Amino acid sequence: MKIEVEILTPLDYRDMGDGKQVMILRPFLVKLTQHYKDGTIEVRIIEVPAGFISDFASIPRFVQGVFPRFGKYNFAAIVHDWLFVHGKIEGRPIEQKLADRIFLAIMRKTKCGWRKTPMYIAVRMFGRHLWNKNRKNDKKKKEK
């Protein structure tokens, strides 16, 4: 599957004053186009709503000199955080692998240079625990 993304709105956010988190001030929209091997195409919109809190890129302090928490990858990080928290696009569940591939596609679109590959590898390697934790929380909410 090939993934294309188009950023539809500007990213408007406010620093929460703690040096770590930001709040999205207006809905941030990204158009996702998935091209499947059988020739079908699926177009969906990812909407990160106003009020969503993100830490942008969750980068360990010891590598922040090389990978700052803020950069061209802010767009990708916000969408990835949203997908990790909610696990859905347009109300339909997704897999972590798709969330991670969207992260990479947005970094390509925003021309993040050489940082995109190690950042993608990092989310693939270290994101599983958080993804699973969020999905368990989803199940608990449904059971109530």
Protein architecture, described:
The protein has helices at 74-86, 96-109, 116-126, 128-143; strands at residues 2-7, 13-15, 22-24, 28-35, 41-48, 53-54, 88-89, 92-93. The chain is an alpha+beta fold. The protein has four helices and eight strands, in the order ββββββαββααα. The N and C termini lie far apart (37 Å). The strands form three sheets. It has a three-stranded antiparallel sheet, covered by helices on one side. The model has no long low-confidence stretch (mean pLDDT 92). It is globular. The protein has one domain. The longest helix has 16 residues, at 128-143. A hairpin with a 6-residue loop joins strand 2 (13-15) and strand 3.
Strand content: 15-25%
Number of helices: 4
Query: What structural category arises from helix and sheet content?
Result: alpha+beta
Indicate the low-confidence ranges by residue numbers: none
User: What is the 3D form?
Assistant: globular
User: What would the average pLDDT be, to the nearest integer?
Assistant: 92
The biggest sheet, with number of strands, parallel, antiparallel or mixed sense and barrel status, is: 3 strands, antiparallel
Radius of gyration: 15 Å
Order the strands across the largest sheet as they lie in space: 1-4-5
Gap between N and C termini, in Å? 37 Å
* Percent in helix: 25-40%
Number of domains: 1
Task: Please give the oligomerization state of what you see.
Answer: single chain
Order of helices and strands: EEEEEEHEEHHH
Extended strand count: 8
